Amino acid sequence: LNFFRRARRDCASLLEACAGRGWRRLVLFGAGDLAEIAIISASEAGVEVLAVVDARAQGKSCAGCAIWPSLAEALGQVGGPVDAVLVTDARAPQASFDQARTAACAKGIPPERVLAPGLLHITARP
């Protein structure tokens, strides 16, 4: 229950900050409980989760969002620009953050638009 409360608070805060910057079209990086919480929080913040990226769960869905094996494939399917990528992988958060940042930069998404909730304890390396 504590995880849910903290995740809900962190996701809501992060997604509201995205909305405040005008970043309304997001992709999540990592399927699972945290992604589902982020999807619920997104609608309340006025942002849209377009897809979830997770190679381990490809072909499935997460709270109604399609799961794609790579960011490149997800971006090819969402139709239009993506404003930010939110890391929601609680199994290997730092590795997923680093991978998401590399993949996002390769697709023209600036590194500062790859975000993660505080509960994941991500270190943003240059």
Written overview of the protein:
The protein starts with a helix and ends in an 11-residue tail after the last strand. The chain is globular. The protein is 43% helix and 18% strand. The protein has a six-stranded mixed beta sheet, with helices on both faces. α1 (2-20) crosses α2 (33-45). It has four helices and six strands, in the order αβαβββαβαβ. With 126 residues, it is of the alpha/beta class.
Short précis:
This protein has helices at 2-20, 33-45, 71-78, 93-106, and strands at residues 25-29, 48-53, 61-62, 65-68, 84-87, 114-115. It has 126 residues and is of the alpha/beta class.
Number of helices: 4
Average predicted confidence as pLDDT:
95
Multimeric state: single chain
Q: Give me the Rg, rounded.
A: 13 Å
Question: Overall 3D geometry?
Answer: globular
Tally of extended strands? 6
Secondary structure topology:
Elements: H1 2-20, E1 25-29, H2 33-45, E2 48-53, E3 61-62, E4 65-68, H3 71-78, E5 84-87, H4 93-106, E6 114-115
Parallel strand pairs: 1-2, 1-5, 2-4, 5-6
Antiparallel strand pairs: 3-4
Helix pairs in contact: 1-2
Structural key phrases:
single chain; 6-stranded mixed β-sheet; 126 residues; alpha/beta; 6 strands; 18% strand
